[in-house]
TrEMBL record, chain A:
Species of origin: Allochromatium vinosum (strain ATCC 17899 / DSM 180 / NBRC 103801 / NCIMB 10441 / D) (Chromatium vinosum)
Predominant location: membrane
InterPro entries: MrpA_C/MbhD
Annotated localization: Cell membrane
Protein name, UniProt field: MrpA C-terminal/MbhD domain-containing protein
Domain MrpA C-terminal/MbhD: 15-78
Entry keywords, A to Z: Cell membrane, Membrane, Transmembrane, Transmembrane helix
Gene Ontology cellular component list: plasma membrane
The keyword Transmembrane helix belongs to this UniProt entry's keyword annotation: yes
Membrane topology (UniProt): Multi-pass membrane protein
């Protein structure tokens, strides 16, 4: 395996795990959601690296984009209600 | 949240148990079975499925029942959101600059959605991705202050939201009535049927996702612009 690609994969997966941890432990909902969107975009890259372009498209559009927008508006409402 | 609450301990334990179960299922799926795997069998018969993209042929032909249920789940989710109450007040109208940008972005999203729907038969793409783009167009419209995210009134919105499930189930039942199995397409008609189902599904997914972003039952037109 190409060492450059291997390095990229290792970097990608460690960043992904770090982002997941940061999103889960974030105290502020808005910050957590933004971290989750970044997580979704990197996950789309992982699907692309696994040669699953269909899943990469769906993850970027639904997982990161729409779910992110939904959760941002939910966080906004929750903050207003508090 | 205090740690004296027994729920605070119970939930992580339950989650860990579910995680262990899923990992066990995954592991036994990888190592358990001897003999022929489904993937090779499915790949062999892709040419008869009506879609040359293997992912689409699995989603809409070999495993169509599963996709029908996914659409039903989306519909149920929308019903759940509507039962929460009326939608939030619309966002304030965007400034001139953002408003004219939205005027460019939304048609492009719709065209890209149509492209993904069509290309899904031969290459990566398909109803869910195309529907997500339509939904994103609705979210963009809602964020720039259009009431109801550019969606039609509630009567038509109900039709749109149910369209995908309805077309899918009707085609399945018709095929059953003709004497084939539920959702067993005759190879000659497979492409046309898949495209019909995907078109309905795309419209439904787009409308459902945009309506979900509004976060409640759509407001009547006279309440939308006070």
């Amino acid at each position: 395996m190409n060492p450059l690609l291997l390095g990229f994969d290792i970097l990608l997966s460690t960043t992904l795990l770090g982002l997941a941890l940061a999103a889960l432990t974030s105290r502020e909902p808005r910050r957590g959601v933004i971290l989750f969107i970044a997580f979704g975009l990197l996950l789309a890259l992982v699907w692309a690296r696994l040669r699953a372009p269909d899943l990469a498209l769906a993850e970027a559009a639904i997982g990161a984009g729409l779910a992110g927008a939904l959760m941002l508006s939910a966080a906004r409402r929750a903050a207003r209600r508090r | 949240m205090s740690s004296s609450n027994p729920q605070a301990l119970l939930i992580p334990l339950l989650l860990a148990a579910i995680g262990a179960l899923l990992f066990w299922a995954f592991w036994s799926g990888l190592t358990g079975h001897e003999g022929e795997r489904l993937a090779a069998l499915a790949l062999e018969r892709v040419p008869e499925s009506g879609a040359s993209n293997p992912v689409t042929s699995v989603l809409l032909n070999f495993r169509a029942y599963d996709t029908l249920l996914e659409l039903a789940v989306l519909l149920a989710a929308l019903l759940g959101i509507w039962s929460l109450g009326p939608a939030a007040a619309p966002y304030q109208r965007a400034s001139l600059l953002l408003d004219s940008l939205v005027g460019w972005v939304v048609p492009m999203l719709i065209i890209a959605g149509g492209y993904l729907l069509w290309i899904g038969g031969q290459a990566p793409g398909g109803a869910f991705q195309a529907g997500a783009l339509l939904g994103a167009a609705g979210v963009t419209l809602a964020l720039s202050g259009r009431p109801n995210a550019g969606l039609p009134g509630e009567a038509w919105l109900r039709v749109l939201a149910a369209l995908g499930t309805l077309v899918f189930a009707l085609i399945g039942l018709t095929l059953m009535g003709v004497g084939l199995g539920f959702l067993t397409y005759p190879p000659a008609l497979a492409k046309a049927l898949i495209l019909t189902i995907e078109t309905g599904a795309t419209l439904s997914i787009g409308a459902t996702l945009a309506a979900a972003f509004l976060g409640g039952r759509p407001r009547a037109k006279r309440n939308a612009e006070p």
